[in-house]
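Reviewer 2 asked us to include a model.

Predict the structure of this chain.
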Amino acid sequence: MTKNTDSILEYVLANVKPSEKELREIKKKLAEYTEKIRKNLRRIKVNADIFVGGSAAKGTLIKKDVYDIDLFLRFDKKYKNEILSDLAEKAISGMRGMRVHGSRDYFRIKISEGIFLEIVPVRRIKNPAEAENVTDLSYSHVNYIKKKVKSQKLLDEIRLAKAFCYANNAYGAESYVRGFSGYAIELLVYHYKGFLKFVKEIAKMKYHGNNKSVIDIEKRHKNKGSILIDLNEAKLKSPIILVDPTYKQRNVLAALSEETLGNFQNTCKKFLKKPSAAFFLQKKIDLEKIKKNSYSKGYDFLELKMTTNKQEGDIAGSKLLKFYRHLSEEAGKFFDIKEKGFEYNREKSAKIFFAGKKRQWIVTNGPTVDDKSNSERFRAAHRSVFIKNSRLYSKEGINLTLKEFIRKFKDKNQKKIGDMSITRIEILD
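Predicted model (structure tokens):
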């Protein structure tokens, strides 16, 4: 098995590494735009350094259809936090960058086909405690990885881990992914000394209640107990606590959700049981196959396209995902959902689907029997009402398809849909 696994990983690595031509193009464009920004900074007389961040700086970039390269503008501490994004906008004057809103606005520039620059304003700090935004720590993160991960073998192991996470929808700290950031993957592979050990350790991690897995690479804390005390509650909600080696008050995996980790663990176990290069290929949802399979089993099938008015990226993605989850919950009251899916294109829309079997009944909770006025209204609105434990309930048969359910949901919940920033729900099938 080891020999077979080694040959699989060797084959995968050859396919996930960007080509020399791609790397030369990225390097050339980076140099070109860095010089333009330097000239602008001199022109507007602003004190700021420029450094490349992320995977491009650390030598862990993986092959993608679209490359997002982080370029940080590291402003002197004399500039107030609230003007950094405006200064960055002046620094990229004439470069047609799109402003992306967030905890601190940054800019996205298309510099060639398939290559985007993300211009991120940060503060030049020496002490991590001075950080006013997590991006202020990026310089420390780059330096830490470059200092610790020097061998090409370990850099390649990180590439394998990133490709594996990316293919299985676990790469990214964005709220519509809630997975492993690139920095988190780099730290974990460095900590476990390789891709396979990373997969094995993740597969067996337990995380019920306060029994979380805690990783403190540089032993910044005395013990697990002190970590749980020192970090604030918001940073302890994730199933794994990974202490940032550059700043002990930060959990690098704070964005990781139990749902994402659970799905990823199942994938890790399947890979370990039967290794294959297919685990490194991003899987496309075969809707025709799902639809055909659903109809053969007597299930109903529905495909929708949802659109939001929020800014594309993390904000739009999180709004669309939140609404998808709400709609799933509502549909689940009327249908036994057998399969469902969410596919976000990083723009302002997402496609979703449901396949399920109509439930026989829907039971609706009503008021307590001593609430006379509301009880009368509930009885008037529902035909079949019964009492259980001093509360009214209605039990009604279900006689509608998924399409009919969506149409009724849209008509009945127009305000709620708008309040959730959804501008359109289109039935595709």
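The chain has a mean pLDDT of 90. The two ends are 44 Å apart (CA to CA). We have added this to the supplementary material.
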